[in-house]
Design a protein that fits this description.
Trna Endonuclease, Chain: A, domain 1, 39% strand, alpha+beta, 2 helices
Length: 135
């Protein structure tokens, strides 16, 4: 990845963390890595654990930030969440998957949107699969 791409991604994650904290969520972890799997942000929203995918796009990029949440990415997020819950022994806790989409122009955040429940754990690729946690 180019340095510019990483810089834009960091801007988006910083903005997403600030937005979520302003909304009352507590950021527990940033860039939680489990092997080749990664969670951008892990937050606490009252009694709910929130796995947040941050999608940042610079002006002129093709597609919207939300377009990056492909079926393959959803499946990877699900596996990363499973790894997190196992590692931290938190299977008992209610969870959800949120998306924060960020548009950046000349290192300035132009638009940021937080979408709660952006995906379902039992439908990571748009089809019903066996549920791995009863949310």
């Amino acid at each position: 990845m180019s340095a510019r791409h990483l810089h834009v991604g960091r801007l988006g994650e910083d903005a997403a963390a600030a937005l979520l904290e302003a909304k009352g969520l507590c950021v527990l972890e940033r860039n939680a890595v489990f092997g080749r799997l990664e969670l951008d942000l892990v937050c606490q929203d009252q009694d709910t654990l929130v796995f947040v995918e941050v999608k940042t796009r610079a002006e002129g990029s093709l597609g919207t930030p939300a377009d990056g949440l492909s079926p393959q990415k959803r499946a990877r997020l699900l596996r990363a969440a499973q790894a997190y819950l196992s590692h931290h022994h938190r299977w008992h806790q209610p969870c959800r998957f949120d998306l924060v989409s960020v548009l950046v122009r000349h290192d300035i955040i132009q638009h940021i949107e937080h979408i709660e429940n952006a995906m379902s754990a039992d439908e990571p690729q748009g089809r019903r699969t066996s549920s791995w946690q009863p949310w």
